[in-house]
């Protein structure tokens, strides 16, 4: 496995420090249940990949640390037996580690509750759910991917080519009223994932074929 670039390590460190700052503030207060919050949907369009290929890529947890700055690693939870280096099926579990391990080893256990690569009607085709979420911070967390095929215009350079539009919707129920302080960070993390790192990962994958 190739070592992460210095720029990527720097970006991870900056995002981790921002997360730590927010979390330290939140953890100094006792947990209080407030209204559920839905993050703004992040969206991107990527050429030269089919809906089924994109679904397979996003359904495979091993790719998450490649495209999400705050995602450190993934592993199979102690109670589960399914692998996490292949696309997940409904009922499979994955533990995603984030924060700044080992200093701040936060994690969330996701369950795949929907996985249908044939959905192309604007509804969610890939969904993960975590009832417990992150202790004292959030619960009932949802991560939804809406993947639609798109015809992308190449202008005067040639005919249209097929690609995919990917929408990411994150939902959660805060356990702490100060969790809203971290919303700008979470939105930025999601936007960087979809608009920068996911297209980069797909381009790299296409070149390696």
Can you walk me through this structure?
The protein is α+β, with helices and mostly antiparallel strands and 209 residues long. The chain contains four helices and eight strands. Strands 1, 2, 3, 4, 5, 6, 7 and 8 form an eight-stranded antiparallel beta sheet that branches. A hairpin with a 3-residue loop joins strand 4 (93-100) and strand 5 (104-115). The protein is globular. Residues 24-35 have low confidence and may be disordered.
Helicity range: 25-40%
Low-confidence stretches: 24-35
Order of helices and strands: HEEHHEEEEEEH
Number of strands: 8
Shape estimate? globular
Radius of gyration: 18 Å
Largest sheet composition: 8 strands, antiparallel
Cα(first) to Cα(last) distance is: 18 Å
Tell me, rounded to a whole number, the average pLDDT.
82
Q: What structural category characterises the helix and strand content? A: alpha+beta
Count of helical stretches: 4
Work out the strand percent. Answer: 25-35%
